[in-house]
Amino acid sequence: MGDPVSEAKQIGRFLILGELGRGGMGVVYRGEDRLIGREVAVKTLNEVTPELRERFYLEARSGILSHPNIVTVYELGEQDGRPFIAMELVAGDSLEKMLRTRKRIPLLEGLSIVEQLCAGLGHAHNHGVVHRDVKPANVLVRPDGRVTIVDFGIARLADQTRQLTKTDALLGTFHYIAPERLKGEPSDGRADIWSVGVMLYEMLSGELPFKGKDVSSLYRVINERFVPLQEYVQSLPHGLEQVLERALAKELQHRYATAEEMAFDLQMIAESLKQDRVDALLQSARKLAEDREYANARAVLLQAQRIDPRNTDAKALVLEVQNSLNELQRGEQLRQLVEQAQTAQEAKRWEDAVLFLQQAQTLDTEGAFSIPMRLQNVEELRAQQQALVGLWEQANEARRRGDLPGAQWFLSEALRIDARSTDLRNAYSVVVREIRRKQEATKVEELLRGARESYTMRRYTEAIENLRTATEIDPSNPEVQELLFTASTKQRDERRQHLLDRLVLEIQESLDSEDFSLAEDRVTRALDKLPGEAALLRLQEELLNSRAEHERTETVRAAMLLSQDLFADDPIQAMEAIEAGLAKADGDPTLLQARERLQQHLVDAPVAPVSSGSSALKGEPDEADTEPLEMSNEAHDAGSYSAAKVVASPASISAQPSAKHGWFQRSSRIYFYAGGGLIIAAVLLVAGHVFHHKRPSMDAPQAVAQKAVSAPTPAKEPAAAVAPRFDLLLDASPWATVVDVRDAAGKSISLPSDQDVTPLRLAALAAGTYTVQLRGADNRQKTIQCAVSEARQPCTTDMGLLDIQQLLKGE
């Protein structure tokens, strides 16, 4: 539980300010008497018992004692059942603390303390009060050396024998208790004299007269003699050992009877010591005064006066030293004032400098420091300072108005007066920097404005140049940095896009020209420059697909060309060539359709001749029987092989039994022209497929075939299979309309009236070069040069994309 008194803010009428100390029996607080505003010490008990209460009140009785060396008790009272004492608050340290700090006390100081203790205790004894607990902790020494005795009765040793057997609290203080009290015998004020003798011994030697810290040490206190003080202190004054012998006598009849008696003996010893000490101090003070160390001399003399306040020689020397010190101090004060004036002048504190010099002028009565001349110089400098202040104020006002050039001029004029002024130079530099910053800000704004215009017009390089120049001027401008980042990003994106467009164009050109190796190299290098670019990845995928398609197309082309070469001599090998192509280009529609036509042809071609007994072949075929064959011949002679194939197809012939014999007789010829025409058409289709063209319906051949069916003509034998020597075979992929043919002289060559669509054969032409004008399915015209010679090379060209299926079907 906490102490209720300590938790209170007031005890009686005393306001508690804090705690001064705490012991086993009570607590001492710092308090304030609110009635008169005086600080006091308020002592309380921790535990209230009848015995402790009696002791507490006994201490309060010391209030009847009025002595300079006894603490003054102001009030005794109770609060919440706990007694308290309000007493004098003594400023100073306890003798216990002094001994811990200094170990030993100088002889005269120790004798003075003991004299005052004896005086206070003698007064108490004369009034019937015995302290009974005199020890260093209960002796306070003020800063001026005055001694105050405290704690009367609070540690009263009733029934000491019992106390020693029950607690160790006594072990720390038994050294100061008289033997008769330790033995439980009656005691009086001489017990306090024993305690004072122990303290005198301890102050002078730094040791207790009876050593030991356990209960067995009590034996020495009661029975043994103390160690002679001379073993610790050299040159003891005469009579001091005898004083200790009487004070520490075991038997009461040999001890001092009164404290005043002991004080008298000590006073006699002290007087002799004081005189010797004062004489030594006076000699030392005179030596210091001769050396003009007046302050030290005065300190020594004050010490002598404290020892012997009535010494006249000390008083006279103090007055002499003080006068010298005053004179010295006056000179020192004058020197200090001059130095302070100089320091103020260097710091441009002219008012202070004038004040110091004016004070020094009153002290420099001999004119040693030339104060008037110094004062005049400072006055002139002060006038300059005032002018500087005026210029400075004008500069500041101009700066506040934003007139930086004006502020610069005022500061430059001020620098003419005081060029060494650090403040002026700094202020001038600040204004110059502000002017420069303003100019730079204007320049940055111009550059930023130009950069914005360039950025708006997508001239990123020009914008970046302006922004970088602005950054060199103002690296921390956020707007410049933001726009620079944005413009740089746009420039980088634009350059990347330009690079991408160029790379895509190069790659597309390679793809268009089917240079896949170059395209692959360009795609690889492009992806190295622009990794992960979607357009390049798409082109890479397109490259793979185009290359695969190209290889497939080449496979188809090779198979078709080989099949064409083999068809006339060995249709079976032609079929095998188609099958080999399908093995590499599985599912290719061109090869599949070619195979289907070959298979159909192989089925249609080998029709067995009709028996000679057939009535349909015994006579000449009638006009209806021979009409399809004649129409096929006409189509073949006209160069319309598809029409010939349609008219001469097995289905047409089988539908007219009377024509079968003529068909089989001419089977080899029809086999070559009709079948060969089919394969040539397929090869042309392949070529059209390779170049990704589609061909519309072959209107002209279809018209010929329709005419052959709808308008029958008299049957006749087909023309010879060998073409004229100077024939010109015109062909276009997939097909074209022949618009005009002219020879080298520009003469127009007549075209067949019923046939102007490729393939077209022009017969009986003279050898030479002919200009042929063609029109494609999209009405786009093309002019080619064709040579006519004995070699009979066909003249071919590519016209563009058409429908392959339409051509294959002959529609």
From TrEMBL:
Keywords: ATP-binding, Kinase, Membrane, Nucleotide-binding, Serine/threonine-protein kinase, Transferase, Transmembrane, Transmembrane helix. Residues 607-631 are annotated as: Disordered. It comes from the Bacteria. Gene3D superfamilies: Phosphorylase Kinase, domain 1, Tetratricopeptide repeat domain, Transferase(Phosphotransferase) domain 1. InterPro entries: Kinase-like_dom_sf, Prot_kinase_dom, Protein_kinase_ATP_BS, Ser/Thr_kinase_AS, TPR-like_helical_dom_sf, TPR_rpt. Residues 14-269 form the Protein kinase domain. The keyword Transmembrane helix applies. Its EC number is 2.7.11.1. The keyword Kinase applies. PROSITE patterns: PROTEIN_KINASE_ATP (PS00107), PROTEIN_KINASE_DOM (PS50011), PROTEIN_KINASE_ST (PS00108). SUPFAM superfamilies: Protein kinase-like (PK-like) (SSF56112), TPR-like (SSF48452). The chain crosses the membrane at residues 670-691. ATP binds at K43. This is non-specific serine/threonine protein kinase. The lineage of its organism: Bacteria, Pseudomonadati, Acidobacteriota, Terriglobia, Terriglobales.
